[in-house]
């Protein structure tokens, strides 16, 4: 019988952005390939997280993806969300210019709490299925990302287009940035740099 493959590392990925842009929906699409109709969704309170295994180049990585509340009143313990994160996805809604304009607030928060310059950032414009209601062009999104030196992608949690690709690109970049996760290797084999528990108080913080 074949031995279970060892986990090379655990990555913490954080999703931030205004309320209603679709962070929970992107996460649900990525982990469970599901999309809930509007009447079945509710605002995230505090933080939620899901775990998914991800294989790249014959190595297994454990992704803990944290979905944070967009609504200010539900955001508590903000600094602990960012602690230990190797990747952050900043989400806006392409059919809401306001959510795009608020990206600078999220970027500021990220830069405040995440002092590690290597942390991989990705800007994601969601809801591209609402093309007729689009308020932010792809070019504007790409330009913002270029200016802030982040990855960029547009997606739709509803139709699923771009969702898998967004997470994959982010994770591949983290894998390509060993300084982010090869910090406190306890041995030469498995490396785990932070907890996957929602407290976010993992050891070997990247931020
Ligand atoms: N048309 C369309 N609607 C979407 C898409 N993604 C999410 N929605 C809808 O947008 C609304 C908000 O989605 P959520 O995933 O709850 O948004 P959120 O960013 O997690 O919101 P908070 O938890 O308050 O921060 C829901 O009604 C979703 O059904 C999408 O890609 N296309």
Automatic annotation (TrEMBL):
GO molecular function per UniProt: G protein activity; GTP binding
What reaction gets catalysed by this protein? Answer: GTP + H2O = GDP + phosphate + H(+)
Alphabetical UniProt keywords: GTP-binding, Hydrolase, Lipoprotein, Nucleotide-binding, Prenylation, Protein transport, Transport
**What PROSITE patterns does the record tag this protein with?**
ARF, RAB, RAS, RHO
Q: What class of enzyme is it?
A: hydrolase
Pfam families reported in the protein's UniProt record: Ras (PF00071)
Per the record, the GO terms for biological process are:
protein transport
* Gene3D superfamilies linked: P-loop containing nucleotide triphosphate hydrolases (3.40.50.300)
Note the SUPFAM superfamilies from the entry: P-loop containing nucleoside triphosphate hydrolases
Q: What CDD domains does the annotation carry?
A: Rab18
Give the family from UniProt. Answer: Belongs to the small GTPase superfamily. Rab family.
Name under which the protein is recorded: small monomeric GTPase
Q: Which organism is it from?
A: Coemansia brasiliensis
